[in-house]
Amino acid sequence: MCGIVGYIGRRDAVPVLLEGLRSLEYRGYDSAGLAVIRRNRLQVTKTAGRVSDLRDRVDGRSRAPVGIGHTRWATHGEPNEVNAHPHTDAEGRIAVVHNGIIENAEQLRDALTDRGVKLVSDTDTEALAHMIAAEAERAASLEEAVRRALRHVEGTYGLVVLDVRHPGELVVARNGSPIVVGVGEAEMFVASDVAALVRYTKQVVYLEDAEMATVRATDFRTLPIDESGRRAAGSTVPTTVEAEAGDYELGPYQDFMRKEIHEQPEALRRALRGRLDDRFATARLGGIDLDARQLRSIRQVKFLGCGSAYYAGQMGALLVEELARIPSDAEPASEFRYRNPVVDPDTLYVAVSQSGETLDTLMAVQELKRKGGQVIGAVNVVGSAIGRECGSGVFLHAGPEIAVASTKALTNMAATFAMLALLLGRVRDLSAAAGQRIVAGLRALPGQMEEVLAAEPKIAEVARRFAAAEHMFFIGRVRGWPVAREGAQKLKEVSYVHAEAYQAAELKHGPLALINSSMPSVVVVPADELLGKHVSTIEQIRARGGPVIAVTSAGLPPSLADAVIGVPRGEPELEPLLLNIPLQLLAYHVAATLGRDIDKPRNLAKSVTVELVQGQQVRFGRAAGKRLLAPHDFAGRGAARAPALGELADHLQPASVLVLAACLAEPG
Ligand code: AGP
Which residues contact 576 (CB under 8 A, 6 or more apart)? Predict the structure, then answer.
């Protein structure tokens, strides 16, 4: 979705901005633009096309030390050149790029029109440029002008402001839409995503929600947008980003989903590195700040996440029950947050999210905290809202995941939960020998995954054979059940083939009626104590004429199914991680056969940060002048209170909640 980049420093801003925008292309966009200051004048270049078109148009004759750029995904107004960012005031003093949605844009635009301002675009962002320009005439600094203008704004934003009269600085602000400052030597970068700046610097500072910053070439300072003094300014100590510029490039691959599927062994090695303890046959998870006594006092573990993160949570719940013998389950965070849950102080809640920005999961965390729940995060993106809100937890170390379909993040979630289960087990009744078996099993997984990936041509051939199917069942039992659910989700998401997951034993209670020769079933068959049952499921389906693709670690004979895809045998508790890989490849190759836009499936976005209520976006960040979301960092900083359900109910009308809308899902 939309992308922001800004630069100030010793280089020419234009190539830096263009390169930054190119790195953000993967998010999807429909128009692009940039603004620089040259010889005390603002120069704006826009296109309704690609970043390469912008490159052709831009005037590169002389150096510009400061500038801002944007890739836009239309929300207010058509995708055309006029609506593309940056937007400026009438005089061409101020230029603004903005991600997010200003909900009172109509009011603000009307007020400006009443004052005689001529608006040229249909966007919410243009109003901001005019408002900041008006404030700048009266304010002592650009920072102050932006702050004053934002007092009138309701909605979400990540924004960067450029002022011809203050060419030595950029002002940025964040409320519900990420902004990161990249620290260089005598140069600074700003962006909505580290992808735009890892090429230049690895030292970054993530702005908190409700925070702004003035960025100069040699320094920057952060401050709260709300000047009441109730909130401290954010930290300016940079953290080092793990990502490399190559993580955002396709390299030899045609799409990111396939690239990321193949990155799994390496991503998994990263997640395991330094976390397996041979001596005590346990795991070390530094982000979980609980001693043995506290770990022992946990009575239940509950995983909360959405979509694939929820299925990973289901895998985690099984692992915790098996290895630690603690009752455990998983629930979609999107349900949890709406159902007034009973929050138990002796339960460990685990909020699971690749992006760390999923609104449903974030709201579930806030509800938990408000009720005194003990919640940790399992998050991939460092500096993201859920990680900060949880305050403690584990990073997944999967590296940047760009395809909408989650693959390597899910693998690292499941592996991380295996380590959590091991840790919890070893302070209870899991023997050292059993712990050693799991440690060795985890160590073996990356190599075993490489073996599965080497079988891709065979899996692709199976995918081509079955790609014409209109529907597919994914069947699993116990350890195979979350794998089947995730497999069905992946197929639906990227190929648009209707897929349903069923627990094997549930087939006979209804769905068996649907089995016929045009309903293939993918049956997940771990080599576990239930093998006889799994085989009988296959026989039942085939007896009714249903084609079966068996995905198995049990070395089943080819005659047992219409296609048998084998994976190496692992430790039984860990086999879901291996059995999941062929299902990713199956979904990928069905989608490729059907010519789908694999990395950007229709109606979906990589992170779902808003929702629609009767056609309107529910704002998060502010409601009726009050903050709804309360950011916290690892030190517990961040003050505003979390929302009460009652407050949210003023904004959410459950009966009319429509869809998590994809094209608006990561607004900008
Ligand atoms: C996964 O393939 C999906 N795109 C989706 O279900 C995703 O897992 C879900 O939206 C949660 O995202 P998160 O992990 O970033 O919170």
Answer: 315, 318, 414, 479, 480, 482, 483, 526
CA 64 – ligand 1 centroid, Å? 40
The rounded distance, in Å, linking the Cα atoms of 596 and 39 is 48
The atom number, within ligand 1, closest to the CA of 490 reads 2
For residue 386, the ligand 1 atom closest to its alpha carbon is 16
**Per-residue tokens: 481:** 């059940």
The interaxial angle of helices 575-593 and 308-319, nearest 10 deg, is: 160
Q: For the chain, give the mean pLDDT.
A: 89
pLDDT-derived band at 629 (thresholds 50, 70, 90) equals very low
Q: In order of start, what are the domains of the chain with their CATH numbers?
A: 3-244 (3.60.20.10), 256-454 (3.40.50.10490), 456-598 (3.40.50.10490), 617-665 (no CATH)
To the query of whether residue 606 is one of the catalytic residues in this protein, the response is yes
Q: What is the mean pLDDT of residues 71-77?
A: 81
Closest CA to 501 of 438, 451, 551: 551
356 near 377, Cβ under 8 Å?
Answer: yes
User: Are residues 631 and 388 in contact, defined by beta-carbon separation less than 8 angstroms?
Assistant: yes
Confidence at 611, pLDDT banded by 50, 70, 90: low
Q: Are 461 and 452 in contact (CB under 8 A)?
A: no
CA distances from 21 to 48, 167, 483 (A): 14, 21, 37
Q: Which structure tokens are listed for 226?
A: 């709300």
Residue in 396, 415, 420, 402 with CA at minimum distance from that of residue 284? 420
Q: Is 308 in the pocket of ligand 1 (CB under 6 A)?
A: yes
Check whether 370 has a pLDDT greater than 90. Answer: yes
369 is catalytic: no
Tell me if 326 CB under 6 Å of ligand 1.
no
Residue 265 CA, ligand 1 centroid: distance in Å: 20
CA distance 138 to 127: 18
Compute the distance from residue 306 Cα to the ligand 1 centre, in Å.
6
Q: Pick the more confident residue, 196 or 29.
A: 196
More confident residue, 127 or 608: 127
Q: Among 17-31, 377-391, 613-627, which stretch is predicted with the lowest mean pLDDT?
A: 613-627
pLDDT tens figures, 258-310: 999 999 999 999 999 999 999 999 999 999 989 999 999 999 999 999 999 99
Does the structure show a pLDDT above 80 at 602?
Answer: yes
Residue 301 Cα to ligand 1 middle (Å): 21
Give the whole-angstrom CA distance, residue 620 versus residue 618.
6
For the beta carbon of residue 450, count every other beta carbon within 10 angstroms. Answer: 14
